[in-house]
Amino acid sequence: xxxxxxxxxxxxxxxxxxxxxxxxxxxxxxxxxxxxxxxxxxxxxxxxxxxxxxxxxxxxxxxxxxxxxxxxxxxxxxxxxxxxxxxxxxxxxxxxxxxxxxx
Length: 103
Prior knowledge:
Strand content: under 5%
Structural class: mainly alpha
Largest sheet: none
Mean pLDDT: 76
Low-confidence stretches: 1-14
Helix content: 55-70%
Distance between the termini: 31 Å
Number of strands: 0
Radius of gyration: 19 Å
């Protein structure tokens, strides 16, 4: 599947857009990735406030941590989505694994 970079003429119909089946597959993969992300993030919800209070954080600070994390994901997604087509998949996978390791 070829990525649309925006630099090509928008009026051309030269096969740069994926087929309907490919679009559905991408949509399902994105939905599954979002579900997995949300599921993993929600696993710490029952334990995080109590652990944070034991370390001296207030409930407001715990809520701020949740909010900032979601805000960064929301604001960072379009930026990474714009440039993901310019990098080979191996580089993206390695960068993601490196980032996940250091969270």
